[in-house]
Amino acid sequence: MGAEADFRYFLPSLLELAATGELEWPDRPWVVRRLRMVPWHARWSLQEQNAVRAYLRAWWSDTTTENVETEDLDEVLATLSLVDTLEEFPHYLHSWLESGRTGRSRLARFITDHSMQLALGKHWNTWASREAVPVLNHWLHSGIPLQALLKEFEQDPDAPEAEQFLEAAALLESR
Fold it and tell me: Is there a contact between 126 and 113 (Cβ–Cβ < 8 Å)?
């Protein structure tokens, strides 16, 4: 892949091409996961770190708010857990709740799809950082996601996704 300086030079173009879909392969998660191979959050300038983190946050925001799923949320969250610091990971989780009904619907689906793995302390995706699992579990059981899901259900109990909100809330309450 070349030296770190080469990667830094080409990274903005690679990320842009991956984001716009002009780069068919490798896909965006693959490109972003290359960040784990360089100490970007330790040795890069603050301006470069902020640019990378802004990109990661925008990617997560798009993933949780887009009406049409263009990216696999599980893989995006796993990639973020792998390439950003553990201290930053809660930001992605908290922003999930701020991403509107679409994001909270995806959270409900994530909980129903992965509650067993997470209860066993296992990662939800092969790319997920093992260290992120306890952080995710702690956040899920903090009561904040539960309240958000119940609020979504109460706002429109006849909505197509209302049952999913209730099922995910029940899974959170049972743990």
Answer: no
Nearest to 137 by CA among 108, 113, 117: 117
Kindly report the length of the chain.
175
Spell out, as residue ranges, where the chain has pLDDT lower than 50: none
The pLDDT of residue 174: 87
pLDDT at residue 171, as a whole number: 96
Whether omega for the bond prior to residue 26 falls within 30 degrees of 0, making it cis, is yes
Q: How far is CA 134 from CA 56, 97, 129, 151, 156, in A?
A: 21, 19, 10, 25, 32
> Quick one: how far is CA 27 from the chain centroid?
16
C-alpha to C-alpha distance for 123 and 125, rounded to whole angstroms: 6
> For residue 23, what pLDDT is reported?
83
CA-based nearest residue to 62, from 36, 95, 105: 95
- Global confidence as pTM: 0.93
